[in-house]
UniProtKB/TrEMBL annotation:
PANTHER family, alphabetized: 2-AMINO-3-CARBOXYLMUCONATE-6-SEMIALDEHYDE DECARBOXYLASE, AMIDOHYDROLASE-RELATED DOMAIN-CONTAINING PROTEIN-RELATED
Gene3D superfamilies attached to this UniProt entry: Metal-dependent hydrolases
Organism of derivation: Sphingobium indicum (strain DSM 16413 / CCM 7287 / MTCC 6362 / UT26 / NBRC 101211 / UT26S) (Sphingobium japonicum)
GO molecular function: carboxy-lyase activity; hydrolase activity
The protein, known as: Putative amidohydrolase 2
């Protein structure tokens, strides 16, 4: 991590805290942008979601219908952006975004019964690979899997890596209320590690067992519920010993870490305190590192939907630019807002390059973009 004086970092963030403000430091030459949390879908997939598969909670059905303007594969502008590659390319060009790392929109194949979900995943991945072949310098992709069918998921991870040359895997949090720390999913985690496939852990509405208090005031969706769900899922993986068992597993969490970085001190402190008092009685396990330290060994975060220079400065200070990747969260967030944010951030040239494209290029093994020489 580039060393910064804390007051300098925070002062620089405050100086550029309003999106669209004059650049505090020009990034020259123009730093390429690889956006790493960019949703896509097919009309067939959206129609299947409209039918209300059993793995969707009622809150998800209501929330997604509201965002999309109602049912029907062509019902809204959001659907058009999810499904239309030409429209996506036009928006990328208009905003200077060089590449999208595509991943299927929530809830993905996890909405369907196991065998059907596995079939949906294969179909989506075949289609995604075709998009990338047609536009190899503009798109890379994350394979979808159906964790509710672990055996099929392992096979699909291997196929995605070896046959389709995809760049990682997307899992949209819980599958029928089950989380990745549970023993039944260990073969999936082992396959991810063996194939060196980074996992993008994307949030969704809280599971049916958790949803109750979130059902009022719109809290079940991106307003709060997604972050609560995503952060809990990753903490379950940390405290469940997943990263001790699979030390080479790489996980990416969006939205500047779903709030977890702001609780590093609290979580580490409570973990130490409880373990000293017999925390095993609460189900705590001895870990090889403090909880926050897995963010330096196994976990990356992205800027998706969190376009704040103050937040970026904080995450830079405690994680370093090596652990942060640029993302938009297209089409749920505005490309122009995300690009203005990152272009006006107070960053050294090397940190700008790391966040904007180099970290993504390395982590996801992206080889095709024409990028500036080192």
């Amino acid at each position: 991590m580039t060393q910064f004086d804390r007051r300098t970092v925070i002062a620089g963030a405050l100086a550029g805290s309003i999106i669209g403000a004059e650049d505090a430091r020009a990034q020259s030459p123009r730093v390429p942008l690889i956006a790493t949390e960019e949703a896509y879908a097919t009309p067939e997939f959206m129609a299947a979601l409209d039918a209300g598969p059993p793995g969707m909670t009622q809150a998800e059905k209501t929330y997604t219908a509201l965002l999309r303007g109602g049912a029907g594969a062509g019902a809204s502008e959001l659907n058009r952006k999810l499904c239309n590659i030409d429209a996506r390319l036009a928006e990328m060009d208009a905003n200077g975004v060089d590449m999208h790392l595509l991943s299927v929109t929530i809830p993905g194949p996890q909405a369907f019964p196991p065998k059907e979900g596995a079939r949906v995943a294969r179909s989506l991945n075949d289609g995604l690979a075709a998009i990338i072949r047609a536009h190899p310098t503009r798109f890379a992709g994350l394979a979808a899997i159906a964790p509710q069918d672990p055996e099929a998921s392992v096979a699909e991870i291997e196929r995605a890596r070896k046959d389709l040359a995809l760049n990682g895997v997307i899992i949209n949090s819980h599958s029928f209320g089950e989380y990745l720390d549970e023993p039944k999913f260990r073969p999936i985690l082992a396959a991810l590690e063996a194939q060196d496939m980074p996992l993008y852990l994307h949030p969704r509405s809280p599971s049916q067992a958790m949803i109750g208090p979130y059902e009022n005031y719109g809290l079940s969706g991106a307003l709060w519920g997604y972050g609560a769900d995503g952060s809990m899922h990753l903490l379950r993986m940390i405290f469940g010993g997943v990263f001790d068992e699979f030390p080479r597993l790489k996980v990416v969490l969006g939205h500047m870490g779903e709030g977890i970085p702001y609780y590093f001190m609290r979580v580490d402190n409570r973990y130490r305190n409880l373990m000293a008092r017999g925390g095993e009685k609460l189900g705590l396990k001895p870990l090889k590192q403090l909880p926050s330290q897995y963010f330096k060994s196994n976990i990356y975060i992205t800027t998706s939907g969190t376009f704040s220079h103050q937040v970026l400065a904080y995450c830079l200070e405690i994680l370093g630019a090596e652990r942060i990747l640029f993302a938009i969260d297209y089409p749920y967030e505005r490309s122009e807002e995300a690009v203005r944010f990152i272009r006006s951030a107070t960053l050294s040239q090397i940190d700008a390059e790391r966040i904007c494209f180099r970290n993504a290029q390395t982590l996801f093994r992206i080889k095709n973009p024409v990028l500036p020489k080192s």
